[in-house]
Design goal:
With 263 residues, the protein is of the alpha/beta class. Helix content is 17%, strand content 25%.
Amino acid sequence: MKLIDLTRLLDAADRDRLPERYKGWGNNLVPNIEPITPWGEGATVMCSLFGCQKHDLPGGEGWGDERLRITTHLGTHVDAPLHYGSTCEGKPARTISDIALEELYVDGMVLDLRGSTQGEGITVEALKAAIAATGAKPPEGGALMIRTGQEAYTVADEGMFSYPGMTRDGTLFLADQGAKILGTDAMGWDRPFPVMRKAFLATGNAGEIWDGHFAGRDREVFIVQQLDNLRSLPASGFKVGFFPLRLAGCSAAPARVVAFVEA
């Protein structure tokens, strides 16, 4: 069994690498981490706790620690139905802590949508073609993960923020294939926010607003964004675990996503 990490690395230093006009987007991409070093505050805290002096500690050092401030939608994360609204399929929407582990360890399939136009919605026809290209049937209750090619970009690249996104029709189509988990390597599931905003202001059509996510009010799916390393997976025939932090009552949580591939 080979384990393949599909989780985007979180690096506090990335905040300085963000293009200037996207600095305000940083909280969904970059954690705020304040280090507590063994030779600095870590030693001071331990001396206070134990009533000792730094020379009593090995090498004059205490423990290493960090203060971490994040959003529940940081990096690679799993959206619970509560993220799309208070109801789902006419019932109270489930939170991230309501989702059982068994629902998050499933058969996986990668849909190759590289070549899709950045900033535009991925069509149902393109999704159908990508499924057909796998030569396999989408797994019932499983995960369909969209590879858009965004893995080529870092947070320092403008291209990170302009990606092919999913529409309401595309989201419902994937749900109709039996998928429970819908994933993407893009920063977001929908079309980029500026694209949706422009379409709404031009047409007045509220259906242009966050339509990929809002489709989850009608069909219960768990949306996973900012996957990484999908290039290392076969198209199908593997298991994948999406394991979010167990946060009571929250709409999402950062997750460690790992594929289990037979060697």
